Amino acid sequence: MSADTSAIYAAGGEPSAADAPPIGGKLKIRADKVVIGVSVLLLMLVAGYIVPAVTGFTELAQDLGNRLQPPSTAHPFGTDDLGRDVFVRALYAARLDLPLAIAGALLPAAIGTTIGLIAGYSGRIVDTVLMRIGDFVQAFPSYVLLVVVAYIVGPGIGSFLLAVGVISWVAYARLIRSQVLVIRELDYVHSARLAGLGRGRVMTRHVLPNALSQTLVFMASDATLSLLFLSGISFLGLGIAAPTPEWGGMINEGRLYLATAWWLTTFPGLMLVLAAGAFVLISDGLDDRNRA
């Protein structure tokens, strides 16, 4: 309580709305985390489409006469071993990496949410079977299993989405299940059952919407892991195939020139860090909103 408000009470009066302490400042800071994160991602995506058209360079255009040129006004991120503009390629890669990182979080979220909802609401037998399947999947080292799945299917977008879908749903399923186990015992859910609503409608209209808040926070955070995994398997040659630019693949291509052309790995790595940081900001901001 402020000194001015205390003085009003001491005088026997009631504080007015004008005397109340501002509450918007803290909430605005929390909201800004989400806004900043989304703005950074959108800026990277838009630049990935605009910059190649403005500069006149394409992501695959080669200029062997300008191989391994350091950063300059003509080529802000330098050129690679084939004379390709690293700046244009790094921005073009955002057009692939960012949507795939989001898809790599959405797909397991959809699978895990469905399984967790069924497991938490259906009872002991179904719950036990589904959770033991989840235990079996989690018994294997996640990244090793992801790499194995990507290797079996072959390089490409399909192998990445299949790998994250098969492996990453378990965390979502456990998170949703823990929420559903609590929500299904609340009074409004019992009232919906007594009103004669079907099981499916109770689950989707009354239970699921109230169990999703923490899942959305986790999904924003999981997009960071999805982005890093995509870059990791591309670095190993199991993700986006060359010559299509992808940050992990670009880092792999530049590792042979670390001593002479540092920019080949540095700038794609910085783009990766920037995008991952934006996803973390979004997750942190959503978490703050849930706690408010």
TrEMBL record:
Coiled coil: none annotated. Belongs to the binding-protein-dependent transport system permease family. This is Nickel ABC transporter permease. InterPro entries: BP-dependent_transpt_permease, MetI-like, MetI-like_sf. It comes from the Bacteria. It comes from Amnibacterium flavum. Pfam families: BPD_transp_1. The chain crosses the membrane at residues 34-54, 100-121, 133-153, 159-176, 215-241, 261-282. It is found in: Cell membrane. It is a multi-pass membrane protein. Its main location: membrane. Keywords: Cell membrane, Membrane, Transmembrane, Transmembrane helix, Transport. GO terms for biological process: transmembrane transport. Residues 94-283 form the ABC transmembrane type-1 domain. One of its GO terms (cellular component) is plasma membrane. PROSITE patterns: ABC_TM1.
